Amino acid sequence: MNVRLGFIGVGDMGRPLARRLLRAGFALTVHDTNDQALAAIVADGADAAPSAQAVADAVEIVFACLPSPTISERVALGEHGVAQGSRVRHYIEMSTIGGATMERLAQGLGERRIGLLDAPVSGGPTGERAGRLTCFVATPRAQFEACEAALRGMSDRLFHVGERPGQAQVLKLANNMLNAANLTLAIEMVLMAGRAGIDEATAIEVINVSTGRSRATEETFKAQILNRSFSTGARLDILAKDTELAIKQARTLGTPHHAATAVQQLWTQAVTEGHGSDDLSRIYEFIAQAGGKS
Question: Do you know which InterPro entries this protein is assigned to (predicted)?
Fold first, then answer.
């Protein structure tokens, strides 16, 4: 294809996404502050750059996959950030950072005539490996079309969901809160069944052909929890961060979030008690150890 793209943030999720672009035939210029992560993607065939600005000096389309709103804002608008780049025209922000941060990025980048694509992805490391990675984008249609080939090279399913950056963030936070809520409730109810003497695997088998089934029971329980492998490849604190952002977004929009708040408090508690770096499926152990406490 001989088209060069930029990619900033090649950690647990960013590297698999960057590798997809390499496999699709794109050349990549990449940057990460973690030398080991950078070396790994360079070994896959990418070229390293010393800063986010250097990436934006080299290419017209830059992807970013970063762990927090603060880091995303610094990479996009800070010193030696993307906004300082001389060549970049389109910035594809795939991080989960909330609508307010995305709107600030749109304003700051717009002042430099850089278009922003709010383009979170869903599926996580396990979905990426299974070929079920979804990307949904909020940006003006012309901007979406200008970057569509690159977006399709990175994702399995692609949606244009709105014209305004920030809209896709709202949908991503809704999705991730549902993921956390489904997993939390599934764990609590399977533990309840177990306390009554029902085998966990049997409980899951019944639920998965009944009305209570969800991705948590159909995939996470079967592949990660029943066998105690706890290896989704996604950190607990990242999903906890997303639940906090979802609550903030619901408050901003004035929508109900009573059940969501209970889920957010439990995941935040797990991080507070030192489990943030655990695989997110280990929330099972945290909930099980809490026993009957509410």
Answer: 6-PGluconate_DH-like_C_sf, 6PGD_dom2, 6PGDH_NADP-bd, HIBADH-like_NADP-bd, HIBADH-related, NAD(P)-bd_dom_sf
